[in-house]
Inverse folding.
C-alpha cells in the first residue's frame, strides 16, 4: 500500500519566494464528494494523474496515483467533476534536509498559501523555516478536497 506522510502549514509571509527553485501550475478536480476516499484528476503542467487518497485527516494516509493521458484528464475536468477545479501554483523550496512544497492558490481559494512537507517516516524530524506559520495538518478545511467544496474565499461568509 502506498502511504503519504505529510504535514501542512499556513505560510506567514513571502520570504520563501527567494528560495524557490522550481514551480508548476496545477488544476485538479474531484470525481466524488463524501466517502471513504477522495478521487481526483490532476493536471500538472503537461502531465496528468488519477489520484485516490483515503478520506481522513492527519499526517498519514493511503494514497495511490496513476498517470493518465492528458487529453483524458482535460475531458474529466470539463465533464465529470462534482465541484469546480482547484487551481494553484506549486513551488519547491529546499530547507534543511527536506524540500517543502508551497501551494499558492488561485480562483476562489486565493489568496491562500499553504506549505507541505512530505516525510518518509511519521516520526521523522524536520526543521521549519521562519516563513512557516501554524500547522493545519489536522484542520480538514485546508485539504484540497475540502477547498473544492468550500473555497477559502467563503470561509468568512
Amino acid at each position: 500500500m502506498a502511504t503519504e506522510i505529510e504535514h501542512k502549514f499556513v505560510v506567514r509571509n513571502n520570504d520563501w519566494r527567494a528560495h524557490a527553485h522550481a514551480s508548476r501550475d496545477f488544476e485538479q478536480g474531484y470525481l466524488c464528494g463524501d466517502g471513504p476516499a477522495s478521487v481526483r484528476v490532476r493536471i500538472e503542467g503537461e502531465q496528468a494523474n488519477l489520484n485516490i487518497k483515503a478520506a481522513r485527516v492527519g499526517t498519514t494516509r493511503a494514497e495511490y496515483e496513476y498517470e493518465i493521458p492528458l487529453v483524458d484528464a482535460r475531458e474529466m475536468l470539463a465533464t465529470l467533476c462534482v465541484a469546480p477545479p482547484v487551481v494553484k501554483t506549486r513551488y519547491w523550496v529546499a530547507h534543511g534536509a527536506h524540500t517543502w512544497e508551497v501551494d499558492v492558490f488561485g480562483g476562489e481559494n486565493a489568496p491562500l498559501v499553504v506549505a507541505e512537507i512530505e516525510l518518509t517516516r511519521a516520526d521523522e524530524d524536520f526543521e521549519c523555516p521562519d516563513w512557516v506559520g501554524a500547522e493545519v495538518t489536522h484542520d480538514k478545511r485546508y485539504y484540497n478536497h475540502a477547498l473544492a467544496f468550500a473555497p477559502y474565499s467563503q470561509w468568512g461568509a
Summary: The mean pLDDT is 94. DSSP finds two helices and nine strands in the chain. The radius of gyration is 15 Å. Helices lie at 70-79, 144-149.
